[in-house]
Every structure is written in C-alpha cells, then in structure tokens.
Amino acid sequence: MKLNKLFFVLAVGLAFAACNKMDEILPQSGTMLTKQVQETNIIAPSRASASFNGMFTNIGKPTKLANTPDDWGYLMILFCNDLEGADAVIADSGYNWFSVCGEYSSRNNTYRNPRLRYQAPFNMIGDVNTFIAGFPEDVTDENAINMIAQAKVLRAYSYMLLAPQYQFAPLTYVKAEGKKGADLPCVPLVNGEPVDFTHNPRATVAEIYNFVMEDLNDAVAKLEGAQERSSKMFIDANVAYGLRARANLILGNWEAAYNDAVKAAEGYEPASIAEVSVPAFYNIEDHNWIWGYDMATGLPSNVQSNGLYATTTSWLRSFSGQGYAPACQVYTCINSLLWNLIPDTDVRKGWWVDENLESPLLDGLKWPGFDDVANADDGDNKLPFLPYTNVKFGVFSMATTVNEEDMPLMRVEEMILIQAEAKAHTDAGTAKNILESFVQTYRDPAYSADAAGRTLLDEIWFQRRVELWGEGFGVFDNLRLDKPIVRSHGAGTSNIADAFRFNLDSQDPWLRMRFPQGEMNTNFGIVDNQGGQQPTIDMNPGLLDGVTD
Amino acid sequence: MLMKKIRVFFTAMVLLAASAAAFAQNISVKGTVKDEAGEAIVGANVLLHGSNTVYTMTDVNGSFALSVPSNGVLDVNCLGYQSSSVAVNGRSVIDVVLAVDDQLIDETIVVAYGTATKSSFTGSAAMVDSEQISKKLSSKVTSALAGTTPGVQIISSSGDPAGGAPTIRIRGIGSMNASSAPLIVVDGVPYEGAISDINPQDVESMSVLKDASASAIYGHRGANGVIIITTKKGKSGDAVVRFDARVGVNSRLIPNYDVISDPAQYYETYYKLMYNKYYYTGHTVAESYAYADANLFNENNGGLGYQVYTVPDGQKLVGTNFKLNPNATLGYSDGEFYYTPDDWYKETFHNSIRQEYNVSASGASDRFNYYAGLGYLNDGGIVYNSGYQRFSARLNAEYQIKEWIRFVTNMSYSYSDSNNVSSGSWGSSGNAFYIANNIGPIYPLYVRKVDEQGNPYLYTESGRQIYDSNNTNFKRPNFVGNAIRDLYNDVKKSYADVLVGKWGLVLTPVKGLTLNANVGLTDDNTRYNYLYSQFGSASNVDGATSVGHSRMFTVNQQYLAEYKFNIAEIHHFDILAGYEQYSRKYQSLDGYNDHLFNPLVGELNNADGTDNKTVESYSTEYMTQGFLARVQYDDNNTIFLSASFRRDASSKFAPGHRWGNFGSVGAAWVISRENWFNAAAVNLLKLKISYGVQGNDGLDGYFPWSDQYQHSYDGTNYSIAMSYKGNEDLTWETSHSFNVGVDFELFNNYLNGTLEYFNRDTKDLLYSKSVPLSSGNPTGAMPVNVGSIRNRGVELSLDGGIIRTKNVQWDWNVNLSHYKNTILSLDADVDPEKGIRGGNFIYKVGGSLYDAYMYKYAGVNPETGEALYWKHVEETDASGNVISATDEKTTVFSDATKYELGSVLPKLYGGFGTSLNAFGIDFSIQCSFQLGGKYYDGNYQQLMWTQASAGQAWHKDVLNAWTPENPNSNIPRMDGDTSVAQSPLDRFFVSSNYLSINNVTLGYTLPTKWTQKIKIASLRLYVAGENLAVFSARKGLDPRNAFGLGSYTMAQGSSSYGAMRSITGGITLTF
Fold this sequence. Notes:
A: mainly alpha; two-stranded antiparallel sheet; B: five-stranded mixed sheet; about 10% helix; disordered N terminus
C-alpha cells in the first residue's frame, strides 16, 4: 500500500509539473502568438514598427488563401486590370493562369481569381483599422500621426482598387439602371467604426468615395511637411496627393485633380528618353517613381508560399530565368491594335518587340548561352518571345532566378497625364501644352497632339495606355471614362488570341465582378451583381473607343 | 490470461513441494490425446503434474511418450479444450480425451488499458488477427482493416509504397473541421509516426474500438474511434523460429480512362472543335475552316502545337469532312527534328519487384517471455525512381524479476529508405501521373532528330536520353517541361529512422492489485535529399537541391493502478485509476541551394549558388494530460457493468479552457449463461448497451487559441502581419455516443454474429467559421465551438463455418454497415434557408456534411448542340415574398442556378470473405464493397472538356458529341458548352458503387510427418494477391480515392499515385 501512496503522490506531482509546462508551450518559428509579439516589442522596441511595415509588405504578398502562381496581392489585381482591358495580351494556352481575365470568366462566385481580388484589399483594410485602433484618438506623437496618415492612404487606395471592380464609375450614367454610378451599390464599407460584418450591405459608390476622400484629405493635411520617408515603398505627401488626384479625376473634380497632380509631381522628373531606351521600371530608386513596391520586402514570404512564380517578374517581365512567362511562352504582349498606332519616332515603340521579335531595346542584351535574347530557347525556362512581347519591364540581371524586381505604383509621368486630362475639361490649350511638352521632351521629340486626329481627351488616354501599359490602369480607365473595351476590329486585325477576341460595351453588366461565395455565405447584406454573360468570339465587332479606331 | 498463468504456476509450486516426499520409480508412458469426436489433437501439452521440466507435446497423430513416476499425475492441456488431469497409476498406455472448452475459446479482445473477453465486453470492438494481417501485401498494417471490420471505411488516395497511410473513418465523419481520424495506439502508447514504420508481420492483432464505452477512457482524441495495435509476444512452450520470404510483382491496378489513343482521331476531333468555335459564333463556313486550318498547330492561339503527320505539299491534315487526309502518314520531319507520338502511359508505368523477408523468434518460460523479429521489405513502385525499402527490428520482452515485479519492454526500430515522386490531388505539369494519364495522344515523349539520310533517331546528349520538353521547334499548349523526364533525372530520397519503445514496470504488491508505470516514446528522424536535375526542371539554376531534416519526439507516460477483487467468487470487481501525459515535439530544419557542381549529388555542399540559398527551421510542441478511472463489475460472468471517467487537458486550448471531462457507462448481459436459459443451439447470446462522451482537439494548427503573426525582413525594415485569427474561448469538441447491440454464437459456432446500432452526436464542433471576407480576417475563417452533427447507423457482422471436419474447414464472414450523417445545428449566424455554401457542397440543418450543391445539367439543345442548364426563377411580390417559382432551361451558364442534390454518401458498405483449409491447402479471399452512393468524377470531367484544354486527353465519349447529324446526343457539341471547365455539374456524378478484391491467398502446408524429418515444424508455400481488382461504374474510376463529393477542380485519381496490385509467392518456415 505504501507503493500505492507513493504512486499517487508521484502522479499528482507530475500533473502539476505538466500543467506549468503546458503554459510554456509556444511556437518557436516564423509564426508568433500575440503574447510573443507583445513580449518582443518590449525586449526589442525596434520591432514595434514592424506591423506598420507589414501593411506595405502585403501589397505584393500572397494572401495566404491560395498559394498558387496567381496569388500576389495588389500587384496581381493590377495585372488583372490590364488583362481585362484592351491592351495587354497573353497567349491562349494551358499555361495562362490569367485566361480567366482574357476570356472574362472571372465573373464567378467560386473562382479563386476574383476571390483574391476581393480579399487582398479587405485584408489591408482590416490591418489598417486594427493599426489605427491601436492608438488613442488624441495621439500627439508626431511619428504616430504620420503612420496613421500613411495607413489611411493605404485604406483609401484599397477602396480605389475595389470600387471599379464592383460598380461603374461615379460619373457614368448607367443606362440600364437609370442612375448615375455614384448612386449604385458598390462594396461593403468597413471604416474602422464598429460594424456587424454579417449584415453589412454594399455602400453606394458615392459613399465609398466620400470615405476615400475623407481619408486622403486627412492624410494630405498630416503628411504635408512631415519628415522624409525612409523608402519609396512608404507614403509621403506626394503619394497622398497623387492618389487624391486619381480620386478627383474619377469624381470629375477637374481643378482639384490638376492641383493635386501638380503637388504630387513636385520634386520628380520623368524618365528621360535614354533611360527608357533600355528595359526599365524595375528599381524603386528610379527618380521618376513617386511610390513603388519594394519586392525584397515581400519576397521572403512569397518564396515560402509559391516559389518565385507568384511575382510580377514571373508574369510581366520577359527576362526572368525563373518565370512563368519565359518558361511557358505566356509573355505579356501589347495588343498590336494599339502598338501599330505608336509613331516610329516614339521611344516607346521599342517597349515591345515587333512582329519579327525585334526592338532597339534589345541591342546589346544577351541571354546566358544565347546571343539573341528574343529567340533564345532552352526548352525549359526560356522560350522565344512572341510578336509584341513587352521588353518595357527590365530586370536587375538578365535571366534572374531571384525575381526581386520592384513594381511602380505611381510615377510622375502619370501625374503629368492627369494634369493634362484634368485641364482638358477646363482649359484645352493648357492641357495640350502640358501633353506635348511632356511627350516631346521625354518620349517622342516629333510628337504633336493633333497628328493622330483624336480628340484631346482621347489623345491623352492614348498616351496613358502607352505610357502606363502593364502598370494596372487597363480596364479601370475604360470604366472611368465610360469607354468600350475594344480588342479587335475582327479577325486578323490584332494579335489577341481568338478566344479573347471580342469587344465589350462600356456598360456591359458583365464588367461588374461577382461577390465571392465566402462573402455571400456570411454577409447577408450583400446582393450580388447580375446580368450579362461571358463574351463570345468577335462579339460587338463594331465598337470603337476613339483611340484605336 | 497472464494472471491465470501465474496462478497456475503458483499452484504448481505448492503441489510440487507437497509431492516431493513421495518418491516413486519412473516408467515409460505413451498414449494419444484426442477430442470427443475421436480426432487427434496435435500440439497438446502433456506435463507431469508439479514438474517444470518433464513435459512433451503430442505429434501430428496426437501421440506422446514420456517417462514419469508410476504414481504421477499427467496434466494434459491444449488451447481450446478443457484441461484434464490423469493419474498414471502405473499404466504404460494412457489415452486422453479432451472436451472442447467454451469458456476458453471466448475470444480475447485487446481493449483500452488491458484485455477483455468477447463475452464480458460492454462496448463495440472488432479485431483483426495476425493471420489476416500477415496475408496482406502492404507496408501499412491498417490496410488490413479494409473490408474486414464493420463500421470502418478506408480511403486510399495513394498507392505509393513510400506514400501516406490510408485515411480511416470509423462510423462516419465525426467532425466538421477538426480531425475525423481515429487514435492509433501501439502497445498501449499513442502513436503518431508513419503507419508504414510498423512492420505488419510483428503485429499480433488490431482492435478497432468504436463506441464510447470502449474508448472514452482515452478521453481526448478517442472521439473518432481507437485502433489498438498489439505486437507479438512469445507463447509458452518451446521457442518458435519463423521465417517468411515472399517475392512478387507490383503493377498498376486501375487502368486509365477510356481515352482517345488514335492521333488521327484526336486531330479530327480537335479540328472539329476549332471549326465549331468559329462557326457557332456567327462566322461563315469558309472562315471557320480557315480559322481551324490556320491555328490547328498554333499553341498560342488555342491550337495543339504539334504536327506529327506528313501531308503532301499544299494539302491539309484534316479535310472539310473532318476526316484525316488519307494521304497523311504518321511521322513528320521539319529537317531538324522528327516528330511522332509516343505512348506516354506505357513509357511511364511499369511493373516492379516486391520482396519481403521476415524472421522471428519467440518463446516463453516461467519468468521470461520474448518476441524478436527482423524484417526487410523492398516494395517497388510503378514508375521510375519510386519505391520503398524498410529494415525493421523488434524486441518485445517481459521478465518477472521478483514474484511481485515484472519488467516489460517493447522496442522497435525501423529504417526506411524511400524514393519519392510528386503526385497528389492536383493536376500539374510537375506531376508525372497527371501527365501520363492526361496528355493528348499526339505528343512525342522523346526528342528525335533526323540524320543526313533523313532517317529519324532518338536523340541523346552525353549519353542521356533527351526528352521532349518543348525544346524542339514545336511547343505544346499545356504541360510545361516534361515530368516523365524528371522522374528519371530528379531523385527525391528520404530516409527515416524510427525508434518506438515502451518500458514498463508492473508491480503486484498484494493480491489483486497491479501497479503499472510505463514510458513510451517515438523518436522519428527523417532526412530528405531532393535533387532537381540540371538536365530537367532546374536547368535555369544548373541543378538544385533541397535538403531537410525533421525530428518528431513523443513521450507518453502512464501510471496506472488496477485492483481486482471479488465477493464470494460471484461479484467481480476491477477498478483502474491512473494518470497519463503525452507530449510531442516537432522540429524541422531545411535548406535549399542551386548550381550543383556535380549534377548527380543532392547535398548542399555540392551547391555553389549564391542568390537563392535558403535555410529554415522551426520547432513546435503539443501536449495533453489526463486522469482516468474505470470500474468494471460482473455478476457471475453473466451481467457486466462498466463505467469510466477521464479528465483531459490539451495545449491546443488557452489556459482556462483546457480541461474537459469525459466518460462512459456500459452494460452487457450474457443471457446464454443464465441458469434458466436452455437452448442447445445457442452457445452465446449477449445484449450490450453503452453511452459515453469523448473529446476531440484535433484542429490542424498547434495554437488555434491565439492570433498569429508572421514576420519578414527586407534588409532595412522588419514587417509583421497577422496570419491567423485565433479564439481564446476555444475548447473541446465532444461526441456523445450511444451503442446497443447483440452478440451471438449459434450451432457450435457455425453462425456467429454481432448486430449493433449506434448514434453519435458531436457537439460544440470545432468549426472553422467563415467570416465575411470584408472583415479582413487573413484566412477568411476563425475557429469556434459551434454546431452539432449526428452519425447514426447499424452494423452487422456475421461469420461461421460451412464444413468443419478434421481435414476440411471452410469458414465465411460478411459485414455490412450503414450510417447516415445529419447536421443538427449550425452557427447562429448562418441563414437556415441558405445554409453554408461551398463550391460544390452545402451545409444545412437536416442535411449532411456530404450534401452536393451543384449546377444541374439539362441535356443538349437538339437544335444547336449547346449544353442546357437548369435555372431557378422566383417571382416575388412587393414585400419580397415568393409568389411563384419555376425551373427553366438556359444555355447561358452564368444564369444557371446551383441546386441542393442531397447526400452522396454510400447507403451500405462492407466486406465479405471466405477461407478454406483442406488437406494442408488453405485458400482465402477477402472483398469489400460499397453501394448506393455517388462520386464526383472530376477526372472524367477533365477528359470531357470542350474548351480551353488544348493538348489534353479526351475520353472516347466525346466522339458521340452532338452534331447536326447526331442531334439526340446527350453530350454537347464540341465547343457547345458554355460552362467553364472548373464548375461542379451534376452531369459528372457517377455511382460510387464498387467491389474490390482486396486479397486472395492460396497456400499449401506440407504434411508435418515429412517436414519433421528435416526438423521443420511446419513449411507452407503460398501465393498471395493484394488489391487484385476493382469493379466500378466506369473504367479508370477508383471510388476508393475519396468520399463522394470528390472535387471538380482536382483530378483526384489521375494525378495521384494510384492503387497498386501486388502478386507474390512465398514460403513460411517454422522451426
């Protein structure tokens, strides 16, 4: 019986010891629990700003939903905008993960692509709200005020990515609904105030933009005169002005748009002809970038999730040694309908190879083991370019297997084009001067705004389509301008794959995304978008957009 | 059983002392031991009463001879018979007749923390014995459960000998988002290693505990049933040495779907599709032909890429009649390369050798009992560089140190060396299975060039075969690289050292009391070296290697006290109490680098790259502990009562939410032992009933109770972002099980059976609650305890004999199970009308976890050949009330509606088998089946594509697609389907009925009188076939891959390794 007692004491003792041990079990890894984060912030105060940085990292990071080669955060949304527009083309083959954009099958409740495009901005909005809520409302610390302002800009930017996907632009008079876009339902508004997420109906487009302007106005005020940011991946007054310029343009506040674009451009110089006579747009340090994504920030977690295939370099850049585009010949090409209209005197004509895979931008470039980059074919990781493949976007080193190229989010060139567009509504003469001065100085010395015979506004749009190609403005511009998506004038008129060859009316209800099943299941306030159907080959052959007619 | 032996031993000692005084002269005695029918009993022990050393065993004729004192007493015993003691009384010939012992053949079942006889057990359990296990040709011991145990479903998504274990579900799907896997206990210790690290030849038995009465004492993780694996022990008597060798062939079991294999037919069909794509979008006939002609070989514009026929100049490959040009000849040269299709399937799959050798020795004496086994298995794969080798060793020993203390140890070590290949549920270019099953029949596998005379030859470089990886002048529109090439060049090795040990002390300080302390551990060290060849997928980085090591270390401590006593030999009590603690530590270290100097060595020191180096490591821990108690009582072996209680804590929950209380009560009544019961035909009739509560903490993550964050560094700044939203209030999911059943044995065991009814309600489900994506939750979900489900069903298991004579024994068995899964309640936030909708399923109160929610196909529009879908249209009045609802057909897929299509689970599943032993020949067959369910055949859907999958194989059914000449087809026109490939359509449901022949064994045991001459106790020769055939609704379909809903975005079967058939011949020798 003694043994029995001993046994009992032993068991109880062990139990207590075990209980304490259980409390000490914490992950020892790249994942941390809340209490470890708090502990770290006390021991190493420098880590406290990491959650602020984390929001910026998320711009180019997988959402953690899919872990597939098409999951790369905001940068993927931007890429889809181009592919759903008229000017960016990827081959119709089994390697094209973005054929859902080319063929417009992305209007689907259960597809991954639309879900990623919905989830990434709302994750960011959630992070921003949590971040802001961590400060007292009357915070006086200058640094804190600055960070809150930046966070608000991120929130505004997130809504600016969401709104055009789910509803027509505020100024568009939507014939089928008999209302202006501003008055139609957009996406649920999550503004940091307490909200019942399960009954959070779609706010109107006007309400969304009101909130966007509120955030941007506040941010502009707080960021004006603030200390210089440590990297162009963060946000300063210029970025806030630039986004407000974009918003004002969408809302038709022409004067304000012009003024904001001027403020945003202050201190920045467009890239020179020489600078864009070689593949470029890969380094956040470039003097013409106002805001960009520093790929090195997001890459570590990206690599863990997807390898290197879920990056802009993999898909958009034709010089990656470890990219989808070069390995599978799913290069992002320009629609020849647009390319053919670029004057030969314009340096940008060379941003894409011609039908014979030639471009002056390739002079002197070599692919390892091959003399000719365009035709280099190792069978596995680099296949020959296709006609009109872009060489606009360069890489740090040819055939890179690192894929750490940065991505521009706002360039001074865009701000100049916004100035021109805003002025075109109020003062055409000034607008034309701005436009011609920019293009002649930096792109095409022989340029004349009248040469192509387009209206001034269409000419500005043409310049945007060429200059900003591949940077995510594609279909958003069509929607903003209420312009049809014109991909071809019929068979043989363009290089777009047959399956993607159709035109869409600017108010085709199919242009509005459908809400993901996950949202519909749990947010009972949502009434989904309806109408339209997946386009068919050569649909609407007669549509014209004023630019590529 | 052991207690009884010890008691016999003590009794014998006492008797020995008493008889020591009486000395008598030894005489020679011989005789026979026979049963009541006069048949000789082989192997009966004949022992001089009171002696340790004077004993013998009867031979094959039942004869024995022994020298004993003339006044001695012979104890004669044999398992299955009542023992008999016979006084010698000076006789020299003694014939003994033994009566069959009903009590003794009462089957012993291994149950939680001990054993029970079948008649005394109040719970529900099923056993598989070593004989059945050793017949199986599988490295995974749990595969022996398929078809043999009622209530158990086995799903094998992979036949990879180096791959994962089959998924086991006991009595349905017990949880929504937490684990539904049973707890596996090996020799009393929870086991989390790979199931293939246990050598099935070392296993004595497997028990499946199905109800709460049986497993509630395991508390946590017992909710989904428990599988108790018991390894072998020595048996008393002479040492037995057993040697078994088997050699055979592994081959692919399930053939491919019936795909178009004729390249001409494939081109014709594709041409037709391209034509239709144009013609039916408003283009002219001429434009449509022109488009198809222009793009048939243009892989970047929806074409096929490859031309493998030569056609005379100026002629087209496919004519306007959609037939191949009769002048076309197979094979095409562009001057540099020669193109002709290869049979990828044939080139990829091959048969391989399976070899297995096992030797064991076991024995027992008064104080020492041991089993030692050594095994070697080489299980070949059905594709190159795939296979599994295992060396295993086991030593189980027990030593009675003192009268009151015994030392028990079970140790096994296994070393495995695997070649891994990429497979899975995803179709991907890197997956050789997917490619071999799904590539169109026009593509070459190898690069061929033409010599100066224009003759084609297989092209090699530095002696290496060069595979077609889009490296010729043609490109495929699908399937980047060449996964078949990578099978040869990429070598993915993994090595595992697994030590599983248990050390225990059993103390018996006073009569009836047993104290038991033991420590069990698993130490699993796995190292992998993956080489990605520069001659293959990693050419861009000059070859790459990924090397990693993981270590899983688990410790289980048990302290148990058991006290058995009785009152007046009628009321028996057995009380157990104890404490158990389990902890697991998992550690991982991985590295990657590229630029391999030596292309053949996959080690980091051979990798000289600088840009892409990565090193990663992490550790994580899990722990549970609990107190347990059990009382068992029986009233004269007739009425049995049991009750158990367990209080458990798990580290998966936050402090304050960790502890849960579980327990059970059960009763059994052996009616056939009642005095008043008098039915000669009934050997056993027992009723049993039980109820209990068990816990489940089986969520995937280690720390679901806390929010989680991930961080990174870019050289300047640290970043951190939330990666997981946890829930501090999270606690145990509990399942409440009720079981009632009857066990019976009739007509001297010619008909035995068990019929059971069960009801299991799982409450406070560990549920990954979807939250609106707009709430910003990083995963779109958080864990909560909400909702409840029910699994309710009946199980029937029958076995018995047909012929039982001395030379012929013919037995049979059958088991049937039925259950229904019902959702009882869901999260209050869920709209009860809408339920929770997934891509292809719907959860609604009253429905099941496997209710399909899909688009409904409405046939083909006979005018246009377009697919039709059902669309639900509701009209509402001003206040939103539905005033009319109709279903219409539409060709616009985006207008189609998803419908609730009910449960896809089978109505009935089970197994049956028979075994025959006659004149030394043994034959057995074991089958399993399921009936009445549905399976979503995603593979078939992929093979029936009409859009956007250029270059992929087609099922022959597409040849019957709608055409103006074939207007009544139920298959839409090529390109006439507006649905998108990755949508769930009820059209692709198929019956999940199957019948599989799991095992057939034929053996012959040589007569003992021959073998004894060469000192061999027994010699058996056999052939065995494992996984011999599966009959399903469609060629190529293996419904055992998944529960019914399958997947519409994954090619479940065709991208997984696929089941293997093994046929071996073997020899078993015992000395």
